[in-house]
Structure of C-type lectin domain-containing protein:
Amino acid sequence: MQVKMYISFVVLFALALASSSSSKKQYRTDYVYNSKTDAFYKLHIETVWNNRAQFICQTEGASLMIPASQQDIMQLHAMIKEFPDIGDYVWVGNDGLDHEPAEEQPIINLEAPTDITLSKKYDCEVLTRWGDVDTHTCYSLLPFICKVKAVNARYDSKCDVYGDGYLYYESVGSCYKISRVAFTWSQAYEECRAEGSHLIVLNSMTEEQLIYNILKTAPRVTGTNAAWFFFAGFRAHKTTDGTPRVFKTIFNQTLEEAGFNQWSVNEPNNAFGNEYCGTIFKNDGKYNDVNCSHQYSFICEKEVKKVRAQ
Ligand SMILES: *[C@@H]1O[C@H](CO)[C@@H](O)[C@H](O)[C@H]1NC(C)=O
Ligand SMILES: *[C@@H]1O[C@H](CO)[C@@H](O)[C@H](O)[C@H]1NC(C)=O
Ligand SMILES: [Ca+2]
Ligand SMILES: [Ca+2]
């Protein structure tokens, strides 16, 4: 009796191990895996123009999902069910077939390019809540769904992150990636985390000098409030009782504890009383406080090996 129980435990345990190691594929934490299509998906509920949706999917190592199979459509259906308030249309990739225009008049973004003839064309594709593929004006603001096949879902084993663009620097023992998009501080924080890294924290003068050099050649991203600031992993909380702000890293250290605490000239200045998030200033590699809801490029970091403090 006892032996039998023991054996069934061993079998169960072995089964559990087997299923967790073989069938569970992994990608960014914000993507879900579908074993039927052997692909990963993410429904973005923020609303953007069609070309922005394509770009965001690309930066995540994916592309706008082309509804290639019934499984793809069921995947979106399962995801959109959880969001009754995001409307009935979701951007998808162009499947190359002809479709009817969506019936409902879309909300046109007033900031769309003044060349309005563009926005009158119904030549971008949407998937409806009901599983139909329709066409829609490309300058509507809609949610979107990204997809990447498991074979194309990139894992960078050197840096232990999901995604492209990380570079390893031996002098510091970390990998870094400068974003190709401008995000708010919170979005930037989530983006690094989804890839398995974190917003950069400077821990030494060596690291500061390295980043200063890397930033010299950083490409300009669109939509940034200022091309010379890059979000970093520290911020302060608003104080209501007049006590000074205390900047802490995302690891709950003061900047002194983290190992680098130099600010740019005349910073932190808390301009307009609204600057609670940290950036690195390209011109000197030092810190500046900015508005958390402004959008800037940002730097993700992943430590590869521990280096002893010099
Ligand atoms: C952060 O550090 C402070 C002071 O060292 C401590 O009081 C606080 O509990 C910490 N917070 C978290 C979330 O660990
Ligand atoms: C700065 O941040 C606040 C709240 O975080 C926001 O309401 C405001 O619009 C932002 N912009 C400026 C220019 O202050
Ligand atoms: Ca660091
Ligand atoms: Ca400032």
In short: Residues 174, 201-203, 207, 301 surround calcium ion (ligand 3) (CB under 6 Å). The helical segments are 2-22, 50-59, 70-80, 116-120, 185-195, 205-215, 255-258.
